[in-house]
Amino acid sequence: MPLSYTDYYDVLGVPRDAxxxxxxxxxxxxxxxxxxxxNSDSDAEERxxxxxxxxEVLSDAEKRERYDRLGARWREAEREAPEESFEDFFAHExxxxxxxxxxxxxxxxxxxxxRRDRTAGPLRGRDREALLELSLEDALTGGRRRLTxxxxxxxxxxxxxxxxxxxxxxxxxxGEGRDGGPPGDLFLRVALxxxxxxxxxxxxxxxxxxxxxxxxxxxxxxxxxxxxxGTARIRVPAGSSSGRRLRxxxxxxxxxxxxxGDLHAIVKIVVPKALSDRERELYEQLAESSTLDPxxx
Amino acid sequence: MNADGQTGPxxxxxxxxxxxELTVLARQAGVRIVxxxxxxxxxxxxxxxxxxxxSPRFDPRSAAxxxxxxxxxxxxxxxxxxxxxxxxxxxxxxxLEARL
Lengths: 297, 100
Description:
Chain A folds into three domains: 72 residues, DnaJ domain (Helix Hairpins); 111 residues, Urease metallochaperone UreE, N-terminal domain (HSP40/DNAj peptide-binding domain, Sandwich); 76 residues, HSP40/DNAj peptide-binding domain (Sandwich), CATH 2.60.260.20. Chain A is elongated and about 105 Å long. The relative contact order of chain A is 0.09. Helices cover 31% and strands 23% of the residues of chain A. Chain A is built from ten helices and eleven strands. Chain A is α+β, with helices and mostly antiparallel strands. In chain A, strand 6 and strand 7 form a beta hairpin. In chain A, the strands form four sheets. In chain A, strands 6-7-11-10 form a four-stranded mixed sheet. Chain B has one domain: Multidrug-efflux Transporter Regulator, Chain: A, Domain 2 (Orthogonal Bundle). Chain B is built from four helices and two strands. In chain B, strands 1-2 form a two-stranded antiparallel sheet. The interface between A and B is small, with 7 and 8 residues.
């Protein structure tokens, strides 16, 4: 008996599509009936243990899903399961060029479809993917979006620090299951829209241009710089050439585990298009007395 | 003599019958002392009347009672009052069956 295959649904006496409430009710009722302190039958203890095992699996959505799919082999599947979740896998791999993907239904089927053929009976619905376009400000604060996909309204909460290319899984919002099978999941791939001021550098850092005059660049200054949440003062050291990076720690995009990336202010020296007479005179004096040959550096 | 807690102090009534300390009761029942105190509040087990209030002692059979109540409480999602009630009902059923 202990080594033979026990159907957990039979043990609890519930149908295969029973919801969590029904499963809990069935377990509690049978637990009272077969508890070894309340039932002196010789097999009460054995049955009570079987109940506990069945309840442990069926009351846990993930274990139950594996059990539904793989039956007695569900524990093996547990060991074979990849280390990375789907979300991590795709967050790392991304989809390359950022082209729009509207409902690439065949993707998961192509990658993981084979497993569906192992068991007959209820079929889990398809996983689907759609694009979720967000602004940098959205990524900064997190928030909520309503999308209409195939005429169906879907509401999604996205966390602060969401990354470009990240997949957000909405469990059970994918294709409908067949023959009582559970629905698939909906994966929303985040696409961060370009921002007029900030450019993303990696997942959490941002670049922003810092325009300064030649004299500010030469003499040094302290100026205001735009940050995603407002402005900050930044000190430009004397002798800063174009392209110099000045880092503002923690002013980038928030990270999932806490903290934030950095904001890089990149110096850009801007010269006047037209000089006043006085300016021209001074520049000429400066040119005469300057020893710098930038082509030599 | 009293170091293992299994033997009562050598005075009066308690010397005659074996009793156990609270800590021993908890250990034998496999529960923490705070849980034993909860069962005491609900009267599942009672300290021996001859023991001083500061260091209560119990009938050795108390450990089995507490262990059973704790199993029921944990396995059937009962609260302390419910577990104690079930134990009392089980005792009554036992007595009635014994009379048949």
